[in-house]
Specification:
Elements lengths: L2 H27 L2 H24 L16 H30 L7 H28 L3 H30 L3 H29 L6 H14 L5 E10 L2 E10 L5 H18 L4 E8 L8 E2 L2
Bound molecules: zinc ion (ZN) (2 copies).
The site of one zinc ion has 5 residues, from strand 1.
Amino acid sequence: MKFVVRLALGGIAVGLAVLGLKYAAYVLTGSVALYSDALESIVNVATAVTTFLAVRLSAMPPDANHPYGHHKVEYLSAVVEGVLIGIAALAILRKAYLGYLEPRPLDAPMLGLALNGLASAVNALWCFTLFRYGKRARSPALVADAKHLLTDVITSAGVLAGVALVAMTGVLVLDALIAALVALHILWWGWQLMRQSIGGLMDEAVSKEMLEKIRKAISTEAQGAIEAHDLRTRHAGRTTFIEFHLVVPGTMTVAESHAICDRVEAALKEDLPHAVITIHVEPEEKAKLEGVPVV
Ligand code: ZN
Ligand code: ZN
């Protein structure tokens, strides 16, 4: 098994272990804040699953059934996760509201804090490992995972401090307030995840800056051609699909126009090494006098 795949699988295992420890901490104390922290771990398990899909399934080469590749599996799973995350956040908000109406003292706060602290330490250690090896393996998915874990370790530290404060001061309502804050944080994450993935599923175009770069590369590298039009772009995972019509003088040979196409493709791949480029060559009477003029 490839190293990145093993790391991604390890992420799922660590996520489940942390979820178990944090849930146990909640059951021992009855703290709503610790409950919210436990449910937040579901987000981690979900992101670990997406990472696994990204490095395993999505990276599978195109085959006869899926000639454009398998990248969209990442988006699909991320949308499902976004829904799960939303449900987790609503469950926390409900419990936080009930806890706010009827605050109750924590049972065994020290043991609960210790268990939750242990889980956070495991998370921090795993986060460090992912950063190190994710960078070495040049896996954007693993590094993104590590970044998310880092924010999680920080929120967990906040939750721990808050619950310790509840135990020390006896201000019980604080417990529900912390939980509500965590729920809002989770909702925000879920929304980000969904927004990006829906963009990918709906074949959103590349960013304005990227489009400008593409237009510039075509305009400067296609010498000999007249114009490019009907430029369309979309993303699938880390692959960018670029297609356009290239208008050349009607008397140009196929070999010459192909050489232009190869030059433009090479220039585009400097910025987008994973780009898949399709160019349709046309004679000058097809010119639309719009799109990208060749300089
Ligand atoms: Zn055309
Ligand atoms: Zn060719």
